[in-house]
Amino acid sequence: MTAQTFAIFCFVAFLIPVPLLAWLDRPRAKNREAAKPPGPR
Amino acid sequence: MYAGHLAFGLAIKAKEPRAPTWAVLLGVGLLDLLFGPFVLLGIERVTMTPGVPPGFFLDYIDWSHSLAMSLVWAGLFGAAFLGRGRAVAMVLAFSVFSHFLLDVPMHPPDLALWPGSSIHLGFGLWKSMPVGYWWVELWTIALCCAYYWVRARRLGTFGGRAGWATTTVLVLHILNSPWLAPSH
C-alpha cells in the first residue's frame, strides 16, 4: 500500500460508516415523534 | 485509533441526543478526513512501514492533528452548527477535539502542539504494545458502546437499532486489527 492509497483508505474508512451508523441510530417508528426537535411541526 | 473514535461518537450522541448523529460521527473522524486529502495534496506526509507496527509512520500531520489545529477545526465545526443551539454546537466541537484526546495515548510522539512546533505529544501504545493497543481500544469501544446502548434503551429517542450500530463498530475494529488491517 502506498502513502496515497493509505490516505484515501483513511478518508473512505471514516466516511463510509457515517450514513450506516446514522441510519441504525434512527429511533424506532413509535418513538420518532418524540425524537423530533421542538418547533413547528 | 479508528473504531474507537466511532464508538466515542456514539457515546457523545448518547450524552447529547439532540446532536445530529451524522454530524457527531463526521466530527469524531474529521481530523482523519482532513488528513487524507492533506496527504494527497502534499501538505502532510506519511511513510508506509510494512511489517513494523502499526504499518505506517506519520511524518508530518501538524495541519490536521496538532493540538492547536484540532482546537481550530473543532471551533469551526462547532460554529457551523450554532443554528442548532449552543449546547449542540459545543458538543459537536468537542466531538472533533475528542479525536485528538483519543489519539494521544495511541500515537507515538507525532502530535505537534501547533504546526511546525518541535514539541510533540503521544504515549505511543501503537509501538510499545503492537498488539495490546488493539485490546485497549476494544475496552474503550466496549465502554462507549455499553453507555450508548443503555441510554438508547432508556430514552428511546435514538439508537433504534443500537445493537446493530454497536456490532458494526465492533466489526470495524476487528477488520482494523493487527491481524487483518491492510496497513499492517
What report would you give on this structure?
The complex is a heterodimer of chains A (41) and B (184). By secondary structure, chain A is an all-alpha fold. Chain A contains 3 helices and no strands. Chain A has helices at 3-15, 17-24, 32-35. The longest helix of chain A is centred in the N-terminal third of the chain and has 13 residues, at 3-15. Chain A is rod-shaped. The termini of chain A are far apart. The mean pLDDT of chain A is 85. The longest helix of chain B has 24 residues, at 132-155. A two-stranded antiparallel sheet of chain B has the order 1-2. In chain B, strands 3-4 form a two-stranded antiparallel ribbon. Chain B has one domain. Helices cover 61% and strands 7% of the residues of chain B. Chain B is globular, with a radius of gyration of 16 Å. The mean pLDDT of chain B is 94. By secondary structure, chain B is mainly alpha-helical. Classes of the chains: A mainly alpha (41), B mainly alpha (184).
